[in-house]
Specification:
Helix content is 9%, strand content 50%. The protein is built from ten helices and 42 strands. By secondary structure, it is mainly beta. InterPro entries: Beta-barrel_TonB, Beta-barrel_TonB_sf, Plug_dom_sf.
Length: 873
């Protein structure tokens, strides 16, 4: 940290110098904004309470939506303020989770969260926005991966743009508590957030605490492996240990964050974000279970034969595993524009300190000596009371990351078909990892460092314009990119790619891309400290049994760099006759070489491929597994993903029809309707799908005149459902070894093979402050073969899980808040995860459930019900 902090401070000074220089130039040469601004013809209809006498204001406006992304790449979906309200979430972090079917990359590489923009500009990271209240967001735009390179992101990330309201202030408190319906686990959270947005300036302060109780094996009736029948046990049963083994540890987490943003000039903004957090967990790994040799001549041995006596000792204490993680992050982003150029400069420093403490098995050598001398009764109920506290295996690591990145987007050339766009970015990263471990195997330490200098160029060229040159081709553009990374420990790694975006007829868009990248394993994968965890249950396919073994984890210094080659072809149809509907079909072809991966499920195939990672005793019984990361020689994957997104809105009028024609005051509120009404979401140019008069709601008068007031209520529902079919999923662990077919009997995960078919669904309904949302996932059944092929195989049955969330915003029920003022600004939510308590059924060839695949191991939490109360002040 001492080495990196001066560099970070120097970087901040550089930002300040650049800022002052830019302001001086701006004062000498004032220029109009060159930032793309999307046009948005909207109709804002603030709705009064039921008992107001005046008619709702109806104002037709042709506003400019600042912060929208204007691009040839059409968005996957757009959400306005009321769409966001219909999700019933408390923060943007929660919103991102519930819309994951639209935001997760379909490339299948687990790229995690999408790339994030704020008002069309880069930020230092999603942590700047994670705790923003959803009421502060005017609109959300979701774009496919083809847009990522235009903003200097990885080409396998989707892009999501959050557009803030101009004026907003609130203080909110949130509390939630949940329990597993099977019992044993409770989780709670409490937090507070202050948000203030004043034009381009903003402040967000957040603090939260989370806690969870331990879940023990005894609370899920986990059946333990049987003892060796040749052993003599004393008042012991395998299930006795289940009280002292946790499936989920106790957990306490605290985090505080602060974000400050300033609009330094009409063309320049600065944001600074700081986060500090801690997380502590405590789990139990069972009891000491020594085996004592008792000779036939021992005075306490009445059997007349030599015995091996197994004892479960609750002394000196249960074997514990504790981990403490402390995180500190400081980041900043400086964004600006000059004529023809949009630029950003981001800096980020992160420090993560982790300490893991694991109790070793007790040293019972002294007890055995006393038993041999005949002075200690091996059958005594208080055996072990004199044992010393266990020695600890201790692993510590401190990982520090400092990153500076600059991105500039410009239009160097104008063609008859449009502007050529060039995006250039440069990045410097300094990583360090200091790790040490002290185990029964001895003491070791390592200090790894890595510096990265990276640069990327992305060029987009329009070839056809529907209303201009080559109009017969529709709207067509191509792109190409080239990147170089210079790593201090892996040398030069390169990447390149190309693609096209073609709207060949209105409503139909074809997107195709190829990317080839080289990536290095993370510093943590190379140098994390060695950790040995005792009594870990693993299913031994070779002996067809569940056993408790020592699990070895940590880093692997011998990992290689990986090469990835991906092809994506996507077709999207947005029929003009059905507003709010989009149909998507995508084909993915992924190839990886020297892939870094977690150690796979210990099948006979895996053991043959990595024999030095598996340890057995003389009788062939599994005793330990080295589960540090490995390289696979090649991974291949081919799949198709297709589905629909459909979003519908409606207006409901009270009985009696329309009221009179009085025009009211037409001012939009910070949390007003704000977005595109029934005419549909904005398109890539930011224009509404239909004329404003089509979306403006009911007319101001009604046939025959009359003066009855009306209050139209806006409801909406949506559904998103996608089906993935996998044609090929194979892994070649090493040259000269048979390839694993993950669709037909092989596995590299602990949850069976790879399902050929999977379905994900997300949908919801919202009206007058009341909403309900459902997410569901289905995975096809798989099979994992043992030594004897089909005879020793395990069948993993298909599984479908459903999550339900229902909520009510009391502000939309004015009569309730009038009678109970404390409900003003409140929202009540109920969430049920795994609504039907679905748990995957795993059986062997005889129809039995292996101990390792008991439901309590596969899904220890099960159905979980949570109540959340949030109140804004």
């Amino acid at each position: 940290m001492k080495q990196l902090l001066p560099r970070y401070c120097a970087a901040q000074i550089a930002i300040a110098i650049a800022l002052l220089s830019h302001q001086a130039v701006a004062q000498e040469n004032p220029a109009q904004s060159d930032e793309p601004v999307a046009s948005d013809s909207t109709v804002n209809v603030p709705l009064p309470p039921d008992d107001e006498d005046e008619q709702a204001d109806i104002v037709v406006t042709g506003a400019q939506v600042r912060g929208a992304v204007v691009t040839e790449v059409p968005p996957i979906e757009e959400l306005d303020a009321q769409d966001i309200e219909s999700y019933g979430v408390a923060s943007l972090g929660e919103l991102l989770a519930v819309i994951s079917p639209q935001t997760n990359s379909g490339r299948g590489r687990g790229s995690g969260r999408p790339a994030v923009l704020l008002n069309g500009r880069r930020i230092s990271g999603f942590r700047e926005l994670a705790q923003f209240p959803p009421e502060a967001i005017k609109r959300v735009q979701i774009f496919p991966e083809e847009l990522a390179l235009s903003y200097g992101f990885r080409p396998d990330q989707r892009v999501i743009n959050f557009i803030l309201v101009d004026d907003f202030s609130s203080f909110a408190m949130d509390g939630e508590y949940g329990i597993a319906t099977q019992g044993g686990r409770g989780e709670g959270e409490i937090g507070a957030t202050y948000t203030n947005i004043d034009g381009g300036d903003r402040i967000v302060l957040d603090i939260e605490y989370q806690g969870a109780t331990a879940l023990r094996e005894s609370e899920r009736n986990i059946v333990q492996p049987e003892f060796d029948p040749s052993l003599t046990t004393v008042d012991s049963d395998p299930d006795d240990a289940s009280e002292f083994r946790t499936l989920l540890p106790t957990r306490q987490r605290f985090e505080s964050s602060a974000t400050f943003g300033w609009e330094l000039s009409p063309s320049t903004s600065l944001t600074v974000n700081g986060v500090y957090g801690t997380e502590d967990t405590i789990g139990q790994n069972g009891l000491n279970a020594p085996i004592f040799d008792v000779d036939a001549t021992n005075p306490f041995n009445t059997s007349g034969t030599d015995l091996e006596v197994l004892r479960l000792l609750n002394e000196p204490r249960t074997l514990l595993q504790q981990q403490d993680v402390e995180t500190f992050q400081l980041s900043s982003s400086l964004n600006g524009r000059r004529p023809g150029i949009l630029w950003s400069l981001t800096g980020d420093y992160e420090r993560i300190e982790t300490e893991t403490r694991i109790d070793r098995l007790a040293d019972t050598t002294g007890l055995q000596t006393a038993i041999d001398a005949g002075t200690l009764d091996p059958f005594s109920p208080v055996l072990g009371a004199g044992l010393l506290p266990p020695e600890l295996d201790i692993a510590r690591s401190v990982q520090q990351t400092f990153t500076m990145k600059g991105t500039a987007t410009m239009r160097p050339l104008t063609l008859p078909t449009g502007d050529v766009q060039l995006t250039a970015d440069g990045e410097f990263t300094d990583l360090s990892l200091s790790a040490s471990d002290r185990t029964a195997l001895g003491f070791s330490s390592s200090d790894l460092g890595r510096t990265i200098g990276a640069g990327t160029l992305n060029l987009e060229i329009p070839l056809a314009d529907r209303n201009g040159v080559n109009s017969a081709l529709g709207r067509l553009s191509i792109n190409g990119n080239l990147g170089v990374n210079e790593l201090s420990d892996f040398g030069t790694l390169t990447s390149f790619g190309y693609g096209l975006n073609w709207e060949f007829t209105p409503g139909w868009t074809l997107q195709a891309s190829f990317i080839r990248t080289e990536t290095a394993p993370t510093v943590g994968q190379l140098g994390n400290p060695l950790i040995v965890t005792p009594n870990v249950p693993i299913f031994d396919f070779t002996n067809n049994q569940t056993v408790l073994v020592d699990s070895i984890s940590g880093g692997n210094a011998d990992l290689l760099a990986e090469e990835q080659r991906d092809v994506k072809i996507g077709l999207t149809w947005r029929p003009e006759t059905i507003d709010g509907l989009s149909i998507v079909a995508e084909f993915f072809r992924n190839r990886s070489f020297d892939t870094t991966a977690a150690f796979p499920t210990l099948t006979p195939e895996v053991e043959a491929a990595f024999p030095d990672r598996v340890f057995r005793d003389a009788a062939g019984n599994l005793t330990a597994v080295d589960q540090r990361p490995v390289n696979f020689a090649r991974i291949t994957s081919d799949s198709v993903r297709y589905g629909i997104n459909y979003r519908k809105r409606w207006r409901k009028l009270p009985q009696g029809g329309f009221g009179g024609g009085r025009r009211g005051r037409g001012r939009q509120q910070g949390q007003g309707a704000g977005g595109p009404p029934q005419g549909g979401p904005t398109n890539a140019a930011g224009q509404n799908g239909g004329p404003a008069t089509q979306a403006g709601g009911p007319p101001r008068g009604r046939p025959g005149g009359g003066g009855r007031r009306f209050r139209p209520r806006i409801g909406r529902w949506n559904i998103s459902i996608f089906h993935r079919i996998r044609f090929t999923e194979t892994v070649l662990p090493a040259p000269g070894i048979a390839e694993f077919d993950l669709l037909n009997g092989s596995s590299i995960s602990g949850a069976g093979g790879v399902p050929r078919h999977s379905v994900e669904l997300e949908g919801g309904w919202f009206f007058n402050g009341v909403g309900a949302r459902v997410t569901a996932d289905f995975e096809d059944g798989t099979r994992v073969d043992g030594v004897g092929g089909g005879d020793d195989s395990l069948d993993f049955n298909p599984i479908a899980t459903v999550n339900l969330r229902a909520f009510i915003n009391f502000d939309s029920r004015p009569k309730w808040t009038e009678n109970m003022p404390f409900l003003k600004g409140a929202r009540l939510s109920v969430r049920i995860n795994n609504l039907f308590d679905a748990q995957q059924n795993v059986r062997d060839a005889l129809g039995n459930v292996p101990l390792r695949f008991q439901p309590g191991f596969v899904d220890p939490l099960g159905r979980f019900i949570e109540i959340d109360i949030r109140k804004r002040f």
